Amino acid sequence: xxxxxxxxxxxxxxxxxxxxxxxxxxxxxxxxxxxxxxxxxxxxxxxxxxxxxxxxxxxxxxxxxxxxxxxxxxxxxxxxxxxxxxxxxxxxxxxxxxxxxxxxxxxxxxxxxxxxxxxxxxxxxxxxxxxxxxxxxxxxxxxxxxxxxxxxxxxxxxxxxxxxxxxxxxxxxxxxxxxxxxxxxxxxxxxxxxxxxxxxxxxxxxxxxxxxxxxxxxxxxxxxxxxxxxxxxxxxxxxxxxxxxxxxxxxxxxxxxxxxxxxxxxxxxxxxxxxxxxxxxxxxxxxxxxxxxxxxxxxxxxxxxxxxxxxxxxxxxxxxxxxxxxxxxxxxxxxxxxxxxxxxxxxxxxxxxxxxxxxxxxxxxxxxxxxxxxxxxxxxxxxxxxxxxxxxxxx
Length: 395
Hints:
By secondary structure, the chain is an alpha/beta fold.
């Protein structure tokens, strides 16, 4: 009796045939099942990577090291240079526009991602209300050209023209204006940029304030006319302008002598200026509160930077040697972790903060609190203390 051949019936529209397929072709059901499984695996893998960027290493409950979770780094947005204005010798102000923007408070700064990929922080010096205007928000920053700097300011001056698009991150605020009954503001040169919105805020709130504004020359001091107007003119008694080519060095002791204990002193400018202000204020709770923002690597100088040391990366099982004169950040990126995130390289933005598992840290930042320094460091400026055995980090 001849064998019966399988019969394949024509499938109705939208139906899967009930009989077997011709030899050599896989079952459609198997194909669909395999595709569904692959899709589920890919989705699960993406969720796992989002939960732990260092996957397959275990995720930390509260990660400090690495890129962090969620967006994978600082949130960025594209803005347009709507206006570029020379506001002093060697200083340009950029008005950046781009729809309704996140609000900010005096003391905040933006990170600009420059066309070269370099990331540089600049203080916001415009009006906070401009960011949230319904007809289009804007931020304003001012940048001085630093001839012997790392190239960021030159790129701003040469590459960011009106109409140019630029990525920004932030705003963030590590220099907030805290409520006090009175203020003395001390600004040196481009250090006026975070101070200016503070002066405006104090004036609008009716809080007593004085400003000591120093610079190399009047022509090099941005926003001088505006602060003079806020102070009620030269005879108002609230503004002291010291141009070094005319007046020499500012009299910091005289400016600080009359500051009441309940007041706050806000200072931003070159390192020697801020060190001098700090040295003249009395220690302890009986004196005025001092708030500073530094735009250079933190205190500590370069003495211990001359000593190499080793950094153990506990999670990746590697050890990196940090040469003399090289930051921990640069050594780790060059030798082990090229994608390690960073921003200011000056110890005040917090992007490169890492968890310390062992070792004594020479903290040189201007950001971390005493409690945070117990188990963290900013690897762009901080190092192992001289004569110690190095550091172990949670990386």
